[in-house]
Amino acid sequence: MLFRYRGSEGMLAWAFHRISGVAVWAFILLHVFDIWLANVNPTLYNDLLSLYGSPAGRTVETALGAAVLYHALNGLRIIIMDFWPSTTRYHKQLWYANWVVFVVIGIPFVLQIMAPAFGLAAPFSFGG
Amino acid sequence: MARISVSGTPRPMSGGYELAIWYLMRLTALGLFVLVLAHFTIVHFIYDPAVQNANWIAARWSGAAWRTVDWLMLSAVVFHAFMGMRTVIRDYTKGSTQMVLTMLLYLAAFLIFAMGTIALVTFPAAVKVAS
Predict the structure, then answer these.
(1) What is the biggest distance separating any 2 CA atoms in chain A, rounded to whole angstroms?
(2) Would you call B112 and A29 a contact, using CB atoms and an 8 Å cutoff?
(3) How many CB atoms within 10 Å of residue A86?
(4) What's the CATH number for A8-116?
(5) Which of B 108-127 lie inside 8 A of A, CB atoms?
């Protein structure tokens, strides 16, 4: 459906925005619940957080970050086109610009989050 | 003049309630662009999840400033995420199914907002963890 129905950039931008939006919504349900749990039962919360730090947890974390970043960048693109309709003419170029920013910001995040899953030190250190 | 956007919900021409939601979706989006990306950078890039636990939250929420910032983010995200889901429900369902799902969605939004607010307000400054 994604590649046949009209297809092209506009359709994919919309589909990715919707999928990432629903995914982030689902994570927010979990995330508010876990913070609530931290208050009610800190021991159980700490067990849950060690799951977040596992290799599987880090993979989900990376996917979450990708969904959030795509949704944020594409959302900015939507706002630009909503308030300056003349920019709609360049909607494809704006979408490609989104992907450039997505990759440039995304790479250091992937390295930082995934390195410990492979037994490596996180590449960026903040002395914390 | 074509007042359309390629990816987003078209601006409602009828005005009133729907137009207010349309503007609020964009206003909360701009706020969340800053708040959520900063939040993700702090808790996933600057600090590793492996060093975070209930005590880490207690330290972060030791003052009112971060609690206020996080409550603003909670408020904006509950509105934005649940109104976004309302659009999804309206796109794929109709009639009584749509009404029931929308009411369940609003109920869930209220619960999540209440749980988040309770956690933010009542979280103790130091956490006792049974070991």
Answers:
(1) 55
(2) yes
(3) 9
(4) 1.20.1300.10
(5) 108, 112, 115-116, 118-119, 122-124, 127
Structural domain boundaries in chain A: 8-116
Query: The complex's ipTM?
Result: 0.91
Model confidence pLDDT, tens digit, residues B63-92: 899 999 999 999 999 999 999 999 999 999
How far lies B125's CA from each of B56, B116, B119, in Å? 10, 17, 12
Cα–Cα dist B98/B86, whole Å? 9
Which residue from B56, B43, B50 is spatially nearest to B129, judged by alpha carbons?
Answer: B56
Out of 3.40.50.150, 1.20.1050.10, 3.20.20.140, 1.20.1300.10, the CATH code matching B16-122 is 1.20.1300.10
Query: Considering just the CA atoms, what is the radius of gyration of chain B in Å?
Result: 19
Tell me the nearest-neighbour CA distance from A21 into chain B, angstroms: 7
Q: Sign of dihedral through CA atoms A47, A49, A50, A56?
A: positive
Give the tens place of pLDDT for each residue, B85-102. Answer: 999 999 999 999 999 999
Other beta carbons within 10 angstroms of residue A48's beta carbon come to 17
